[in-house]
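name: query_chain
kind: protein
chains: 1
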Amino acid sequence: MSRQMSATLRLGLPTVLPAVLTAALVWGVGLPAGAAEASPLEIPEIHGFLQAHGAARLGGVGCDPGTACDGPFNEQRLQLKAEGGGLEGALGYAGKIDLLHDAALGESEADIRELYADYNAERYTLRAGRQVVTWGVADLLFINDTFPKDWTAFYGGLPLEYLKRGSDALRLDLFPEFADVQLVLADFRPDRLPDRERFVFPGQAIQAELDEPSGLEVGLRVSRYIGSWDGALYLSRTHYRAPALRQVGAIWQGGFPRLNAYGASLSGPLGSGVLNLEAGYYDSVEDRDGNDPAIENSQTRLLAGYSRQIGADTTLGVQGYVEWMHDHDAYRRTLPAGQTERDELRGVATLRLTRFQMHQTLRLSLFAFWGISEGDGYIIPSARYAFSDALWGEVGANLLVGDRSGQFGVLGDNDNLYMTLRYAF
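structure:
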């Protein structure tokens, strides 16, 4: 996978934006009363942080020459954030830019993480630009959240906020009486996957020519409270975020197949804790019969989770997750020789244990995945200490165990210890 982080936004919305804005203004009765005489945009507030992050790989498996997988992360990062508004709250804007020096790879770059403008009316809000969109109720398991992720940052121990990548999108939130409605129109952006520059993988490296989709992706969420329970329905016309690869002669080629996703979630109190339920159907548009081994089969995904406080300053959360691959017989029949066969049913369980001590300045955390059907796991212990309101440090580990053919086990040579130090201003 190539590493591309753009310092400029690329919004493919020029033909759609005017029509959406016009309809929204008519429906939402325009600017609030008196906004025309209001003051112009406010001077933005500037803040941010300085962060150092390092990770050292454990184990003795050799790395590819010229890579940084022995020390996959050694970076210094300055984030600048600006936000402001005007017209008595009708307009708003925000931006986050990271200036990064990557000592492990010997590179420096700028990454626009967020940059958007808001328009707020009584019956709707409109946001345009690079933004992070999060859907669903699961904890680090994603069903209806089909938006881009950064798995390289996740497996390298970067703060959890770096798991989500911003989407270049137009987001419209409507507030009719019957429900809250969110519509997202976005350009495609792929997941950032672990690569051989920082990680160790079995087998030979593959250089692939990738074609990214053009045109807009569409996401729709409709949510409302039913008593004390929060329910939502989801629909996405999108693409798989990881490429499908096939060999054509001596060349590997790939693309990002079309995906339609339909789902629902429900979250609310049960006993002394919170119950989360989520389901989704993944319609693999380009492989509905399951005969193309390069493209994911359609799937049904189900999740149930429960969390509660189990003691003073201690919480426990557990989840059970199942993927059911449709047309598994066709998948088996067309699977190339030498490839590991995936199960028709894949189950994963997770556990999150969090405890605060020392007047909540010390947070001890354990998150663990266990692949029930694949016999592998991923364990993330960590400890974070707040030295002051502005300064905190964290140490932790990413430990990958079990069968080397499983989703987590395939990264089994990449156990690492990490440390992060951040000063906010």
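note: The chain has one domain: 17-424.
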